[in-house]
Structure to design on (1534 residues):
């Protein structure tokens, strides 16, 4: 009885539990639902079999998989699907409605295709109003027969292959193709994306990209508009590269420079750059990548382009293979070692990093690469990125497929797997090698746009986290309910069809079909922009997207809470611009070309030329490679210049300049002329001292003769501490613009000088100086010597650091300093910042300076480059502005998850090493790779015999013993955002970070213009370790504090985003921005 | 119950006590155990990816330790400590019950293990060997004392090794590629940095300085097709393009590349073989076996070969980073044929002189002094790496073939081979003239 009761209860509970969980499931469905093959009838599976003759060692793209294209082939309003197969036949599925499909490959006639199919796309090639199908294939390789195929839609659910007839039956290694009307003659031309197979690992000079090769990329011009149903090869005359260097894995068509003409982006695997072809509007393209883009993915795979931030300009997303999981990351091939990177630079290849890249389109200024800021840089071995509004909330999200059946980038496999075995035949050996390649099946990634171009990883939350090896993907509204289904072609697994349940979110949408003239009936290449409630939603109709895949011809706009569209603008592929009026949402519109209101838009948007302000160009020269001396160094100190000082040296009431050059470049005095131009004053002493690298300079009357003298700080990080060429120098001015070297003015200060901060410490009327030093050459993390220099009134300085600050004050790695009376007591404090330290304040107490920790500055430690002390909010209290590393970096810091530096002689060979640890998820792991560490500390091999072992590190104690770590100097960074510490009446500070646009690069210099209350910010730094990467997301910008907020101030002319600004100074009305290894620009606030 | 057990124990002890002492003196006679230990060290050197100069250093100290036990326990051998640079004459107190060959083996394992990374791999091998020896009846007390003594000698050698500047040199600057015409630059497919740019600062055993035997510099760099340099490069190009099977076999046999990177698209894997030094240490083992050498003579051969190899590498590397010469692959790709690939993968350091030529010649010279000029041997060193055997009638014949193999392999110009052979011979001769393993007449010393 009792027993029965019990089991009854258990049954009941279980039942309830089941019921409950079922119910919960029902009441809380995820945004996406994976439909079963039974439900859909789609059973396509791209099965691969690795054989002796065909495998990853025989064909480098063996595991690249197939694509999927969406298109309504019979114009019944239901979008049909085509999946390409590598070893299995490709399949065409007819949409029967209700998300049910029928395999019509056989009856449609495409089952006879054969061959190894890769990319697929739909487009109406012959202008008959029916979508034709183009399939890229591999041919003539290891027994694979095939060629690119053009299947012409017969209008009755059958297709006929007419590739040869149309002249598009390319034979080679076809990856994908894209249709575009590049010459705006009304018909669709064809870009063929192809890949090589020959020794991608051998670097050849990049000029080889100019040498055409029959298997290279092609541009084929459609002659329909000229009356012929065929294409002719226009590759050469159009300026498209068609060389053996191209390993094309992605092609996107967009109007990147906003001139109304279609441009092309090509992502290339391996060493070759990606290509950004800008349409010259005359039938030719100009490859312009390096002018517009600072860095790209290295193993660029698929790509996609779309406007992510609603400014009407398309962003570019490329995928790569960086793992997110620290354990996989630490045992996978990462960035090129610095020596390899240098070789590629030597061959003139662009900067490329192993991570997804997100290029934010900033109009005329170029692109900012913001993947690290956006949080979308790592999604493992990735193929197809798609930029689309997944939840119809009006913000464009990102979906990325990933997975490789055999992971070739596993370092243990690379370094340690091959044991010699004389008994094995070569084919047995190869087979074993393939078997030994590790396999890891991971879910795909979904990134939800949370505004401000930041993204959250939501694959699990949205029900998209099924483990798979996924390749091509597409989105399309399969059930015509106004949201977009997701379809993915998998290897060795049935294709995924995810139904989108955004209809349950209450978000609004608009579906748009285009209908156009004879040849391009679906308006492929048209740009559609919706205007609603002050928002802009812009899409371009492309039927080639992501990786080897294509989307349908119906555009779906997610609109969030917007219920009404104010107007719709269409830029037709042929160049006509039409406005269509208001529209309701949650409906489907068909916009017919010629029925809208024609408008003209004047877009003369050529990239402007920049006119340097002064006839002087900084020429950086670095003869040593710092990483050879210090392999673990996180950043270079060799490119800190130029130095620039401003002052009226000849007493004519006009401000003059000192411009300090790099190693081997003389400093120059430029006197301002009444007309605002500058005249150089020759001075042989500057030539004689040219060997020193000038990194900062200051004009001040140091010898009390009433004329400005010059202090020049040396740096460059090439010489050892104490070296003659690191000595700072003082020159006395005679009031005419002439300067004389005063060698006895300074004690021998042989440091990398980072700042000269003048004040009168002992109140004797003569200017004293605090001289900050950034680092010890050859020993990053060690304490350089910063000095307090006391002036005897005659311009001779004596070091009195100890007298005023006490013994061995650890100033740390100082990057900038200011004297300012923070607390308003009439006595100036020394405020300094640097690397691994926050804002530090030294207050004068009788005749000594003491460090004081001010409330609100405790958690300011970062990699601070620059500082200003100003009352920005006009409350009578001085505020502190810090230019920090920013947020566009692999290193992320917070109080809870700091970045930590351990500095110690870990291997006890008398040379210390800097080891940086950072958090990845919950794990505190070394930033450098095992390989890098071994180069500096070979004993690591003994402690961690494999990469697998090394990858298990979750905290510093897993790398080195507690005893060893305890001996290390430990420094932390907890705040990398640049911003303002606003002083409150109680003397404490409150941090207000700069807007996100100012966090896209490190802020290296700042200028506050008191008259206009405008803050000028100079950024970018390309001297980080290769695995951190150059950080050139924002060159110069300006902000104004208004009503408790920073507001952007537009400057003109628009400087390239890639310029590395080191100094900003004001000369009368002009703002001068001096860049490293480049000219001095003049900018001003834009009148508009 | 308890008493019974006690009695059994007593009985057992009694039986054990009554056993006759085993004669274990013949448990180790020849150098087989030592050779097997060396094979293991070779495998670990390969696994851990030590470069050729570093590998030679490891072999030399480990072998020296094994030899010093022989010298300490047999008056017919002279200690090398005190003769080698930076070493001090050391009188080891040999405990009573030490079994010298075991102590020598223990010294080898102990020293070798300290110099490699994957200690577990060596320890497992050592434990297996020791277990086998124990089973052959070496009493525990003798065994322990011998191992202890071996360690003691090994520690002395390790203390000596610590002062050779190797440890400090791990933090010396990496080689900076200058991009000056004619200078070395990293080569495909791995584009590795220049290996050991400061190897000249490592202490030598015998030669006065790394630069004692300075070779003739390579001819002046030129890209002019009529220049001597171009002709040299063209010679390599032609040699590879026209290589016959025998030449290819020779090139492959002496490849001795400890780190050959294979790249197929995104797939990469390192295939590893013994280093040139490893190959010659193996020949020393084969020669010892062929000559029926006892364990002492084997240890002597190992030690002297190791010393010769080490000094050869220091001398060679000194020149490599003086002339910093461009590799044939780089030159040919730039000026003759962009797609040309050598037979062997170009190793990651400058061209002049050929390390294999210097090291092989020095080792061969030393082995000739030890085993005689006409010494036929079957070189099976590479069998484990899938290559056939080759036979030679003298060490110098083998070393000459090793030298020319680099030309057939497309990784060296001819002068690097000729000058390398000269340099190696000089190193060998000096070593043989300066140090000795034979006790000198006391009177002579005075």
């Amino acid at each position: 009885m009792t027993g029965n009761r019990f089991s009854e209860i258990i049954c009941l509970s279980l039942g309830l539990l089941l019921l409950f969980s079922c119910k919960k499931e029902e009441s809380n469905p995820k945004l996406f639902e994976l439909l079963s093959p039974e439900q859909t009838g789609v059973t396509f599976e791209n099965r691969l079999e690795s054989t002796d003759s065909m495998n990853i060692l025989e064909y480098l793209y063996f595991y690249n998989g197939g694509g999927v294209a969406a298109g309504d082939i019979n114009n019944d309003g239901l979008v049909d699907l085509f999946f390409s197969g590598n070893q299995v036949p490709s399949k065409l599925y007819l949409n029967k409605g209700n998300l049910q499909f029928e395999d019509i490959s056989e009856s449609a006639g495409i089952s006879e295709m054969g061959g190894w199919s890769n990319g697929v796309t739909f487009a109406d090639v012959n202008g008959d109003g029916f979508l034709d199908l183009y399939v890229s294939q591999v041919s003539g390789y290891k027994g694979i027969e095939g060629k690119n195929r053009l299947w012409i839609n017969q209008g009755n659910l059958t297709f006929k292959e007419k590739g040869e007839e149309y002249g598009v039956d390319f034979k080679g290694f076809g990856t994908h193709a894209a249709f575009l009307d590049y010459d705006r003659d009304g018909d669709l031309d064809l870009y063929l994306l192809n890949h090589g197979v020959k020794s991608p690992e051998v670097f050849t000079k990049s000029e080889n990209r100019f040498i055409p090769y029959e298997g290279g990329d092609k541009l084929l011009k459609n002659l329909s508009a000229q009356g012929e149903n065929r294409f002719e090869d226009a590759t050469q005359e159009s300026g498209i590269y068609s060389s053996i260097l191209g390993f094309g894995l992605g092609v996107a068509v967009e109007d990147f420079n906003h001139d109304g003409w279609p441009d092309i982006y090509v992502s290339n695997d391996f060493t070759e750059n990606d290509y950004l072809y800008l349409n010259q509007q005359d039938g030719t393209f100009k490859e312009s990548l390096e002018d517009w883009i600072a860095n790209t993915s290295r193993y660029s795979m698929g790509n996609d382009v779309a406007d992510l931030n609603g400014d009407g300009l398309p962003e570019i997303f490329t995928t790569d293979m960086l793992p997110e999981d620290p354990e996989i990351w630490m045992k996978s091939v990462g960035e090129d070692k610095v020596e390899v990177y240098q070789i590629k630079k030597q061959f003139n290849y662009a900067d490329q990093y192993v991570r997804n890249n997100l290029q934010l389109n900033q109009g005329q200024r170029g692109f900012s690469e913001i993947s690290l800021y956006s949080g979308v840089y790592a999604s493992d071995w990735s193929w197809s990125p798609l930029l689309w509004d997944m939840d119809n909330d009006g913000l464009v999200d990102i979906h990325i497929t990933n997975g490789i059946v055999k992971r070739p980038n596993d370092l243990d496999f690379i370094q340690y797997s091959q044991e010699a075995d004389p008994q094995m035949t070569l084919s047995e050996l190869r087979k074993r090698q393939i078997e030994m390649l590790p396999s890891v099946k991971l879910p795909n990634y979904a990134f939800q746009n949370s505004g401000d171009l930041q993204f959250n990883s939501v694959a699990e939350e949205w029900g998209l986290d099924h483990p798979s090896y996924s390749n091509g993907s597409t989105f399309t509204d399969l059930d015509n309910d106004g949201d977009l289904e997701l379809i993915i072609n998998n290897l060795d697994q049935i294709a995924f069809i995810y139904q989108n349940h955004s209809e349950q979110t209450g978000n609004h949408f608009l579906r748009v079909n285009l209908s156009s003239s004879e040849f391009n009936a679906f308006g492929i290449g048209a740009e559609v922009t919706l205007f609603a409630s002050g928002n802009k939603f812009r899409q371009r109709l492309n039927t080639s997207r992501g990786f080897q895949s294509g989307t349908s011809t119906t555009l779906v706009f997610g609109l969030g809470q917007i219920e009404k569209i104010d107007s719709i603008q269409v830029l037709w592929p042929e160049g006509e611009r039409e406005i269509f009026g208001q529209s309701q949402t949650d409906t489907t519109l068909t916009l017919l070309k010629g029925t809208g209101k024609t408008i003209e838009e004047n877009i003369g948007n050529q990239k402007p030329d920049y006119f340097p302000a002064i006839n002087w160009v900084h020429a950086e020269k670095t003869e040593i490679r710092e990483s050879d001396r210090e392999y673990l160094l996180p950043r270079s100190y060799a490119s800190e210049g130029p130095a620039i000082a401003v002052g009226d040296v000849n007493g004519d009431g006009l401000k003059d300049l000192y411009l300090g050059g790099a190693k081997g470049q003389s400093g120059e005095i430029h006197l301002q002329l009444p007309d605002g131009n500058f005249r150089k004053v020759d001075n042989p002493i500057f030539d004689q001292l040219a060997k020193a690298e000038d990194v900062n300079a200051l004009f001040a009357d140091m010898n009390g003769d009433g004329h400005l003298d010059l202090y020049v700080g040396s740096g460059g990080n090439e010489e050892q501490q104490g070296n003659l060429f690191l000595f700072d120098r003082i020159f006395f001015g005679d009031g005419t613009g002439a300067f004389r070297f005063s060698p006895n003015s300074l004690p021998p200060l042989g440091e990398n000088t980072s700042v000269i901060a003048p004040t009168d410490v002992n109140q004797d009327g003569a200017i004293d100086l605090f001289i900050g030093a950034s680092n010890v050459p050859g020993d990053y993390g060690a304490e350089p010597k910063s000095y307090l220099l006391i002036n005897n009134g005659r311009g001779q300085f004596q070091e009195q650091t100890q007298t005023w600050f006490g013994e061995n004050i650890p100033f740390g790695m100082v990057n900038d300093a200011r004297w300012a009376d923070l607390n308003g007591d009439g006595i100036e404090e020394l405020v300094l910042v640097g690397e691994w330290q926050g804002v530090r304040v030294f207050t004068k107490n009788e005749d000594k300076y003491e460090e004081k920790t001010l409330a609100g500055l405790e958690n300011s430690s970062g990699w601070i480059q620059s500082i200003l002390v100003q009352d920005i909010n006009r409350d009578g209290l001085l505020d502190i502005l810090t230019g920090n590393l920013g947020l566009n970096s692999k290193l992320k810091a917070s109080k809870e998850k700091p970045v930590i530096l351990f500095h110690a002689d870990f291997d006890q060979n008398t040379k210390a090493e800097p080891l940086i640890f950072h958090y990845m998820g919950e794990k505190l792991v070394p930033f450098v790779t095992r390989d890098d560490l071994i180069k500096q500390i070979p004993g690591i091999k003994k402690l961690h015999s494999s990469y697998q072992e090394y990858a298990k590190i979750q905290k510093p104690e897993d790398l080195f013993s507690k005893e060893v770590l305890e001996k290390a100097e430990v420094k932390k960074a907890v705040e990398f955002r640049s911003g303002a510490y606003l002083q409150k009446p109680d003397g404490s500070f409150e941090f207000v970070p700069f807007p996100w646009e100012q966090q896209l690069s490190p802020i290296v210099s700042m200028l506050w213009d008191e008259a206009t209350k405008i803050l000028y910010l100079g950024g970018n730094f390309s001297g980080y370790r290769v695995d951190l990467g150059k950080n050139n997301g924002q060159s110069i910008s300006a902000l104004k504090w208004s009503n408790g907020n920073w507001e952007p101030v537009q400057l003109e002319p628009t400087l390239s985003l890639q310029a590395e600004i080191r100094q900003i100074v004001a000369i009368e009305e002009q703002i001068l921005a001096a860049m490293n290894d480049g000219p001095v620009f003049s900018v001003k606030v834009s009148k508009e | 119950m308890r008493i019974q057990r006690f009695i059994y124990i007593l009985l057992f002890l009694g039986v054990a006590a009554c056993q006759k002492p085993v004669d274990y003196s013949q448990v180790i006679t020849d150098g087989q155990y030592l050779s097997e230990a060396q094979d293991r060290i070779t495998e670990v050197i390969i696994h851990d990816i030590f470069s050729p100069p570093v590998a030679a250093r490891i072999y030399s100290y480990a072998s020296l330790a094994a030899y010093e036990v022989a010298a300490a326990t047999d008056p017919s051998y002279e200690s090398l400590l005190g003769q080698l640079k930076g070493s001090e004459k050391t009188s080891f107190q040999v405990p009573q019950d030490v079994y010298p060959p075991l102590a020598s083996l223990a010294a080898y394992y102990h020293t070798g293990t300290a110099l490699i990374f994957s200690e577990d791999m060596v320890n497992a091998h050592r434990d297996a060997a020791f277990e086998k020896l124990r089973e052959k009846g070496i009493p525990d007390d003798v065994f322990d004392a011998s191992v202890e003594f071996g360690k003691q000698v090994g520690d002395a050698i390790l203390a000596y090794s610590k002062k050779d500047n190797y440890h400090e040199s791990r933090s010396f600057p990496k080689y900076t590629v200058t991009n000056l015409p004619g200078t070395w630059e990293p080569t495909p497919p791995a584009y590795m940095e220049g290996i050991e740019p400061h190897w000249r600062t490592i202490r030598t055993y015998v030669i006065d300085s790394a630069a004692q035997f300075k070779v003739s510099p390579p001819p002046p760099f030129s890209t002019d097709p009529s220049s001597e340099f171009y002709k040299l490069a063209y010679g390599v190009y032609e040699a590879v393009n026209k290589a016959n099977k025998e030449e290819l076999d020779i090139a492959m046999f002496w490849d001795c590349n400890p780190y050959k990177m294979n790249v197929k698209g995104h797939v990469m894997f390192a295939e590893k073989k013994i280093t040139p030094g490893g190959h010659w240490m193996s020949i020393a083992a084969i020669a010892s076996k062929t000559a029926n050498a006892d364990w002492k003579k084997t240890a002597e051969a190992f030690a002297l070969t190791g010393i010769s190899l080490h000094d050869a590498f220091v001398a060679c590397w000194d020149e490599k980073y003086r002339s910093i010469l461009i590799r044939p692959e780089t030159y040919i790709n730039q000026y003759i044929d962009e797609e040309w690939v050598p037979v062997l993968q170009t190793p990651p350091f400058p061209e002049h002189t050929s390390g294999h030529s210097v090291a092989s010649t020095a080792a061969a010279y030393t082995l000739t002094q030890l085993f005689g000029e006409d010494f036929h041997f079957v070189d099976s060193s590479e069998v484990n790496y899938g290559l056939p055997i080759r036979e030679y009638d003298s060490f110098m014949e083998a070393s000459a073939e090793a030298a020319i193999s680099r030309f057939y392999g497309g990784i060296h110009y001819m002068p690097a081979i000729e000058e390398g052979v000269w340099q190696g011979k000089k190193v060998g001769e000096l070593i043989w003239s300066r140090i000795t393993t034979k006790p000198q007449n006391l009177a002579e010393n005075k």
